[in-house]
Amino acid sequence: MEKTRHKQRLVDAHLVLLMLSFSALFLSKSSLSHATFISIDFGSSDSEPYTDENSITWTEDDANIQSGESQFLKYSTMPYVRDEQSQVFDLQFDGNYWATVNTTHLYDIVPYGAIYTVKANNNSICLAQTMPNQVPFISALELRSLLPGMYSQAAPNYAMFLNLRVAYGANDTISIRYACICTCFEF
Q1: Which of 78, 113, 146, 177 could form a cystine bridge with 162, CB 3.0-4.6 A?
Q2: Virtual CA dihedral for 91, 94, 95, 96, nearest 10 degrees?
Q3: CA-CA distance, 39 to 22, in Å (whole number)?
Q4: Would you say 115 and 159 are in contact if contact means Cβ atoms under 8 Å apart?
Q5: Contacting residues for 80 by C-beta, under 8 A, at least 6 apart
Q6: Element (H, E) at 146
Q7: CB of 11 closer than 8 Å to CB of 29
Q8: Is the pTM of this model over 0.85?
Q9: Which regions span the lipid bilayer (predicted)?
Q10: What is the pLDDT along the chain (187 residues), one digit of tens a residue?
Q11: H helix count then E strand count, the chain
C-alpha cells in the first residue's frame, strides 16, 4: 500500500513538469507570409517533430536554447509532498520582468501568456533562477503571430499578460484554447 502511494506521488510530481506551459502571442508587423506558429516541447526525447491530436506540430528544444544550462529534472527533485518547499523562479521577456512562477499548488496547471508587439527578429523568453537550489523548468512554449488589429488594446510599447482564462456559460465539454482576460504593462 505504501509503495503504491509513493509511486503515485512520484507520478503526480512528474505531471507537474508536464503541465507547466507558457505561450506568447505576437502582434506581427510583417506580412502573413512571415506568420509565426512555433510549438516547442521541452524535454521531448523525439529528435523529429511530431503532431498532436490538435494537428499542432511540436519540435524538441535543443535548437531553441541559446544560453543557460539545460537540465533533466528528476521527479524526485519536485515537491510532491505538500509541506516541502515549492519551486519559485522568474520569467523574463526580452530582458524585462514578466512574472514570478510559484509551484506551491502541486496539482494546478501553471499557464503564463503574453500578447506583445515584436520589435526585432529575435525575442527571448528566459526562466531565471532567483533562489539557490530552485531550478526553473518549463514543459512547453507556444509562439503565435496575430494579425494587426486583433488586439487593438495592445499598443506597441505595452504587453498584455494573461490573468485568467474563462469560458463563461460553456459546458464542461468545450475547450477554448486562447480565450483570456489580460492586463497591460508598459515595457
Answers
A1: 113
A2: -70
A3: 10
A4: yes
A5: 9, 10, 12, 13, 106
A6: strand 140-146
A7: no
A8: no
A9: none
A10: 444 433 333 333 333 333 344 445 555 444 434 677 888 888 777 778 889 888 988 888 777 776 666 666 655 444 444 445 677 888 888 888 888 888 776 556 677 777 777 777 777 888 888 888 777 888 888 888 887 777 776 677 777 777 666 666 666 655 555 544 545 455 4
A11: 1, 11
Strand (E) or helix (H) holding 144: strand 140-146
Per DSSP, 75 falls in state G
Annotate 23-55 with three-state secondary structure: EEEEECCCCHHHCCEEEEECCCCCCCCEECCCC
Render the burial of 22-56: b for 16+ CB within 10 Å, e for the rest. bbbbbbbeeeeeeeeeebbbbbbeeeeeeeeeeee
- Residue 15, all three cell numbers: 505531471
List the one residue out of 29, 23, 25 whose CA is nearest residue 121: 29
The DSSP H or E segment spanning 2 is helix 2-19
Q: Distance of CA 41 to CAs 103, 129, 161, Å?
A: 20, 20, 22
Query: Burial, 78: exposed, middle or buried (Cβ in 10 Å; 0-12, 13-18, 19+)?
Result: buried
